[in-house]
């Protein structure tokens, strides 16, 4: 195994006391960097970039060079799992993901397969191996997957939505079918994350981006139960669980078998620490909109956040991904502020 020159993220994630909070930003690869846009413009689309390992590796490393983050996150998408299970996606320019077919019936769920996941997603594992080689130990590499419930939302709705009424209706109309699909997604995700780890991922994050559309009871039954299976299955590397907008389940996140709990900016820091408990490392949670403000504002809000979390058991991040129209200089200012902060 390669030794890392900067293993701050991994030490912090394991709960060790470190010299400062590590910092990275969700969705740091792609979106904001001019060199990403230049490369992207030469290609047929997003999917070509995701499925071409040396290009995915190049884009993964760009924010390490340009922003000085303490970790890289592999350039891919959460939707590669539905595709490998038999439900292909498209990425519509300026609109987002679309599934030409969606899951409606029992026979649709039957058609979803957990076979050959590792082979079908070998392009991701290859991108991870190339990235690890090219990073040459500069920073750790984060692997990731969507939480089963978030993928379930896309597979049934077929696209992004404010309400996700189709997947949420199915939870009431046919909970048994919902559970069958969620279990298949979970099984595929465990295989996939283990393959990412084998290929070189040093830590993995589970993104439950649509966690907030469910009430607590349903969240426990249709999401947490499956995320729990995933984190229980992974003991090779530290794990991060990010359930966006899911305030009611914060105490539950504290009991999950993961190392790190992600927080969005709507979750008050002191209150969340009390609910989640002292065992977990917390990740987050600056409002990405702070980065539209002045350099002074970015600095003062970042310092306020750091002092609220306090020293130790904190990975600095935004409360969600960087927005595409943010100026990367300002994102860098956030990162520089974290790196210079003295407790
Ligand atoms: C919900 C979700 C998706 N994908 C992802 C999530 C969970 C995180 C979150 O909540 O933001 C995760 C994701 N998607 C992408 C990454 C790459 C690594 C990173 O920098 O974090 C990661 C971690 C690349 C991408 N995924 C996508 C792009 C933009 C595509 C392009 O360049 O045209 C990138 C860089 C496309 C995508 N993919 C998805 C959407 C809704 C969209 C369209 C809008 C957008 O997010 O830009 C689904």
Automatic annotation (TrEMBL):
GO terms for molecular function: uroporphyrinogen decarboxylase activity. Catalyzes the decarboxylation of four acetate groups of uroporphyrinogen-III to yield coproporphyrinogen-III. Belongs to the uroporphyrinogen decarboxylase family. It catalyses: uroporphyrinogen III + 4 H(+) = coproporphyrinogen III + 4 CO2. GO terms for biological process: protoporphyrinogen IX biosynthetic process. It comes from the Bacteria. The record marks 77 as: Transition state stabilizer. This is Uroporphyrinogen decarboxylase. NCBIfam families: hemE. InterPro entries: UROD/MetE-like_sf, Uroporphyrinogen_deCO2ase_HemE, Uroporphyrinogen_deCOase. The keyword Zinc does not apply. Pathway: Porphyrin-containing compound metabolism; protoporphyrin-IX biosynthesis; coproporphyrinogen-III from 5-aminolevulinate: step 4/4. Keywords: Cytoplasm, Decarboxylase, Lyase, Porphyrin biosynthesis. PROSITE patterns: UROD_2.
